[in-house]
Amino acid sequence: MADDQRITPRAEDFSAWYNDVIMRAQLADYSPVRGCMVIRPRGYGIWELMQSALDRMFKDTGHENAYFPLFIPQSFLAKEAEHVEGFAPQTAVVTRGGGKELEEPLVVRPTSETIIYAMLTKWVQSYRDLPVLLNQWANIVRWEMRTRLFLRTTEFLWQEGHTAHATAEEAEQETRLILGLYRRFMEEWMAMPVITGLKTESEKFAGAVRTYACEALMQDNRALQAGTSHFLGQNFARAFGTQFQTAGGGLDYVWSSSWGVSTRLVGGLIMSHSDDIGLVCPPRLAPIQVVIVPIFRSDEERARVLAVAGGIQQALRAGGVRVTLDDRDGMKPGAKYYEWESRGVPVRLEIGPRDVEKGQAVLARRTGGKAPIPSGDGLVAAVQAVLGEIQDALLESARARRDANTVRGVSKDELVALMEGPGGFAYAGYCGDDACEKAIQERTKATTRVLPDEEFRSDPAPATCVWCGREATAEAVWARAY
Amino acid sequence: MADDQRITPRAEDFSAWYNDVIMRAQLADYSPVRGCMVIRPRGYGIWELMQSALDRMFKDTGHENAYFPLFIPQSFLAKEAEHVEGFAPQTAVVTRGGGKELEEPLVVRPTSETIIYAMLTKWVQSYRDLPVLLNQWANIVRWEMRTRLFLRTTEFLWQEGHTAHATAEEAEQETRLILGLYRRFMEEWMAMPVITGLKTESEKFAGAVRTYACEALMQDNRALQAGTSHFLGQNFARAFGTQFQTAGGGLDYVWSSSWGVSTRLVGGLIMSHSDDIGLVCPPRLAPIQVVIVPIFRSDEERARVLAVAGGIQQALRAGGVRVTLDDRDGMKPGAKYYEWESRGVPVRLEIGPRDVEKGQAVLARRTGGKAPIPSGDGLVAAVQAVLGEIQDALLESARARRDANTVRGVSKDELVALMEGPGGFAYAGYCGDDACEKAIQERTKATTRVLPDEEFRSDPAPATCVWCGREATAEAVWARAY
Fold first, then answer.
1. Do B70 and A155 touch (CB under 8 A)?
2. How far apart are CA A342 and CA A340, in angstroms?
3. pLDDT, tens digit, for every residue of B309-327?
4. Topology of the domain covering A288-393
């Protein structure tokens, strides 16, 4: 799609709409490398704001950043049985380096547990060296057959946390701490409500004892796994011999967690809020929060309007608002409006000669609504308040949409009808048997997203499995997923 | 070297000293992957501060961050003749992906010009789309036979700027702008003085028309190329067909620059300032600027001292100082002093019961000197002033060392004696003939570092080439280099 073409409406083709929004807003582009995307500045700017917020949260909870090698000896992957089974088919393999065939091929990291535990074995000797609380910002490669911008690409950017502890309880606590932190980030920054809970055996991370996840519902009623946090037990510690002397003088393997979110979140943000005009971006993650569009007919008007607009820009910038002034010549205000709307800028300030006379600017919200505000002293606070309102309203409306598309206590027939029809989240009893999960997936393409955490569970709890009718061991949330 | 072992003195073995400093300060470690290092949190913290300062400088001059694929089709490298000749021998090549042999092998990026110009060809149509001012923070792979922590590793982290302009003049201006910005960063943040200038043909970037560089002198009198900025002319634009419609209605290829600095800078920082006790880190790049060490004998003293120490920590933190309080039990103050010194923390505050009574703390500088300061209201300002003094003194002393090891107007015999002996920067006339450069390198292992910019040149300019005696076309700086 060229920049000036129409965006396919959501109702017509959601997947085409998604790509159109990305191309029109110049968030990313296809590259000549199979399955790899280019993240353009307007998309990377969103990712940078995400990184900065998450990094602050990680550091505030005692984590430190480090960097481990991109390449992993092929034999390392094989040391943890489930891990190699899960990841080996997806790897990119370097077989030549410096003009020679390598003795041992190197895998481009699909995740870094193995290389990190090889190092922890060297660094951790005693309980005094614990906990180790590491995070890494890195690129990851997983060979994908079907790719989709941001959501599933052969290379993607992420953060991966890796922590080692003296006890299982501490590692579990860390796993849950991060899950909560992810949820907070997704709700408070992305305005994207999520359900948290436990993954079933078939959906957990290859090498984990337990995987917890945050699941969001997109506008097409498909679920997005937005972040995962794994309790790894002693699996990788045993595989790599990461032992430590306990306070009691004994010897034990460390207990671990790992957790990650990726550039996939940008896809989640787009599919949570955007509309048929283009991107809608929550103000806290908008690289440009306010665009000022001056309106004038003559050079004299231009000078007068730009003087005021420039002052407003300076005041907003001084107030910590990310603002740009669109003073391009040869482009009509209406065309500018449309362009900035499709790029998802939350607030537009229009200023013409009459506004200057009246000491006002017209504030238009990307999400609808337009009203004059005084352009004097109170302007910065007024704009900040509006940005806060938009942020809150986006979360509220995303939550209302999610809830409207959630059905609890579905029967077998209802589950099938729902998943073959409108989609959404379906809560129902689950017997805990893989066979039922598999059968449901074959019939409806829906999978268990999570066994939800307590606050999300239905009351009363479902008594029987939605599929086989046997006693339910848990409630599960089903959905078709990205 | 284990953490508790002695650091090899510089005078005994500079290279062993360098490794010992890194291991003791836990900046990095060797990985099980040939030629790849692990950057540990204390080293990564320095890199993060470097990134943040540079990123601010790039953004303040209008650059935006983006992200391009890790993999580059092998055929892309070949499109620019000098480029492929320079980089092909150093590449790591992915030949298998997703369990299958690839039709076209993928090179792990040794630099990103080719993939970026493939995209610019799509994005740039008209002079209105110019300039494009991009930067990327990324990992890079160049297969190295001899590696050294931070200075030369198969994988390293860097930023690479890539800009496209409508005219040669603008591209050249950008190249010089960035060179100046690098110099400012190296001097103001790293306290590492540099010479700037032009690289000779034999030392320039493979694919550039001209390469400018910043060159620093390490404590062993070897030069470090710390950053480069390239004027690429239309070389990559021609190779990838990156054309644009000019303001006059014609068609032209874009004019480009590229520029980068890497984690090598951490190595330069270490070798500029550190001593036989361990790391010395300039305060502006120190992840921990101040460590507070409480001194006590009894529980009662402990409580009293920690209450005051905690208050000081809070006050410093509120004042924007990066501070830690070392309240570990079971470790003597002297042992703590030594540990934090070897880790390069610029300022230590010691507080014992008598200090509490006197309303003071004892401030010790990593670079020498110890004196009490009042622990009341003025403490934060006093500490900030000391940090500023240390920063300035480090630059001054590094500059004095560099100047003391610089000889101008050397004769042929002096050049040989200098390069076979103490090393340092030697300024001399150069005829511009490759043959002389080659001969000097074969005889002395020294290379031309730069043809220095005007402010660094000798007055009067040397009249003849130091090697062949013919007329000099420029002055050159020679040194043995990393």
1. yes
2. 5
3. 999 999 999 999 999 999 9
4. Rossmann fold (3.40.50)
